[in-house]
C-alpha cells in the first residue's frame, strides 16, 4: 500500500513538472533569431537578391580592379554562408575585376523552404542561374570553394566537362578543406545525428540553440584560431535567419548524395584539364591528415597543393586569411 502511494505521488509530481515545463519549452522553441551585428547587417545591406524558381537567393557582387577581365566566384561551406569570405574579400578585389559570392539555398540570407529536397544538383543550377542573371554566362570563371562548396564545384566541373549548353566555362578551380572523398570524410557527431535521426531530426533541429551550435562547431577550428563569441553569434544569426535551423537535417543529405554520386564527382576531378589547386588546413578533424591528402595527391597528381601552418584547421580562410589569400594568389598567378 505504501509503495503504491509512493508511485502515485511520483506520477503526480512528474505530471506537475511536465505541465510547468510545457509553456517554458513552447516559449523556447519560438525564441526569435538573434539581431544581426553591425558587421553582418552591413554585409546583408551591401548585397542583393535574385529569384530562382520563386526563391530568393542572396549574393554579393563587388567590382574590383578596373580593366581586368578576371572573375572569381566563391562557394561557401556548411553550415555557414557567404560571410565566411569577408576576411579575404578586399584582398580579392585587388586582383579580380568581379568578386561574386552567394548564399546557397537553405543558407544565410537566402530562402530556406521546408519541406524541400535540397541537393547539390540544385545548388549548382543556382550558381549557373546567378551568372546568367549577372550576364556572365559566357565569361571564363575562376571558382574558389570551401567544404560544401567543394562538392557544388565538383558538379559544376562535371557539367563543364560534358560541354553542356548554358553551363559555366571554368577557367580554374581552387578547393579548400572539403570532403570530396566520402571514404576520408569524418562528419561531426551532431551531423551524424541530424543526417540519420529520422523522426528525431525535426525535434533535434528545434532544440538546437547557440550553446549546442557553438560547442559543435568550435572543435573544427584550430586551438589558436577559434572564433570569438561574437563571430560565433554571427554564424548562428545566419543559420537562424528564416528559421534555417529547421532545415539543417535536410541540407545534410548532401553527405548521402556525395556517396551515391562519388564516381561522377570524383571522376570529374580526376580527369580535369584546367588548373586546379587545393588549400589545406592540416589540423582538420573532418578531412584528417595524412589520409585525406594522400588520397587527394594519388587521385589528382596534376593538382598543386598549399598546406597551411600545422595549427590551421577546417576553416582556413577564417583562421589564416593572409596565408589563405597568399596561397590562392600564388596559384592564380601561376598560369
TrEMBL record:
Q: Which UniProt keywords apply?
A: Endoplasmic reticulum, Hydrolase, Membrane, Transmembrane, Transmembrane helix
Q: Where is the AB hydrolase-1 domain?
A: 71-321
Where does the sequence pass through the membrane? Answer: 12-31
Question: Which Pfam families does the record match to this protein?
Answer: Abhydrolase_1
Q: Does the keyword Transmembrane apply?
A: yes
Membrane topology category: Multi-pass membrane protein
Cross-referenced InterPro entries: AB_hydrolase_1, AB_hydrolase_fold, AB_hydrolase_sf, Epox_hydrolase-like
Q: Name one GO biological process term.
A: acylglycerol catabolic process
Presence of keyword Transmembrane helix: yes
Source domain of life: Eukaryota
Q: GO terms for molecular function, please?
A: monoacylglycerol lipase activity
Q: Which GO terms describe its cellular component?
A: endoplasmic reticulum membrane
Main location (coarse class)? endoplasmic reticulum
Q: Which family does it belong to?
A: Belongs to the AB hydrolase superfamily.
Q: What is this protein called?
A: AB hydrolase-1 domain-containing protein
Give the species.
Cebus imitator (Panamanian white-faced capuchin)
Amino acid at each position: 500500500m505504501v509503495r503504491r502511494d509512493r508511485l502515485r505521488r511520483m506520477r503526480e509530481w512528474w505530471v506537475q513538472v511536465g505541465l510547468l515545463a510545457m509553456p517554458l519549452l513552447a516559449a523556447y522553441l519560438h525564441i526569435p533569431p538573434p539581431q544581426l551585428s553591425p558587421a553582418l547587417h552591413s554585409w546583408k545591406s551591401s548585397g542583393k537578391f535574385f529569384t530562382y524558381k520563386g526563391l530568393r537567393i542572396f549574393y554579393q557582387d563587388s567590382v574590383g580592379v578596373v580593366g581586368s577581365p578576371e572573375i572569381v566566384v566563391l562557394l561557401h561551406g556548411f553550415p555557414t554562408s557567404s560571410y565566411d569570405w569577408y576576411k579575404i574579400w578586399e584582398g580579392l578585389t585587388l586582383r579580380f575585376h568581379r568578386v561574386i559570392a552567394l548564399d546557397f539555398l537553405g543558407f544565410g540570407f537566402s530562402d530556406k523552404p521546408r519541406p524541400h529536397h535540397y541537393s547539390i544538383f540544385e545548388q549548382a543550377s543556382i550558381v549557373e542561374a546567378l551568372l546568367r542573371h549577372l550576364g556572365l554566362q559566357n565569361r571564363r570563371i575562376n571558382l574558389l570553394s570551401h567544404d560544401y562548396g567543394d562538392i557544388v564545384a565538383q558538379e559544376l566541373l562535371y557539367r563543364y566537362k560534358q560541354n553542356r549548353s548554358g553551363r559555366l566555362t571554368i577557367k580554374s578551380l581552387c578547393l579548400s578543406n572539403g570532403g570530396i572523398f566520402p571514404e576520408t570524410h569524418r562528419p561531426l557527431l551532431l551531423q551524424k545525428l541530424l543526417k540519420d535521426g529520422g523522426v528525431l531530426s525535426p525535434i533535434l533541429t528545434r532544440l538546437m540553440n547557440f550553446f549546442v551550435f557553438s560547442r559543435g562547431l568550435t572543435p573544427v577550428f584550430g586551438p589558436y584560431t577559434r572564433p570569438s563569441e561574437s563571430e560565433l553569434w554571427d554564424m548562428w544569426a545566419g543559420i537562424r535567419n528564416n528559421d534555417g535551423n529547421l532545415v539543417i537535417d535536410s541540407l545534410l543529405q548532401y553527405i548521402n548524395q556525395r556517396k551515391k554520386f562519388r564516381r561522377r564527382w570524383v571522376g570529374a576531378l580526376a580527369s580535369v584539364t584546367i588548373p586546379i589547386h587545393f588549400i589545406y588546413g592540416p589540423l582538420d578533424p573532418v578531412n584528417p591528415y595524412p589520409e585525406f591528402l594522400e588520397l587527394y595527391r594519388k587521385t589528382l597528381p596534376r593538382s598543386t597543393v598549399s598546406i597551411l601552418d600545422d595549427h590551421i584547421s577546417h576553416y582556413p580562410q577564417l583562421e589564416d586569411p593572409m596565408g589563405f589569400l597568399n596561397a590562392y594568389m600564388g596559384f592564380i598567378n601561376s598560369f
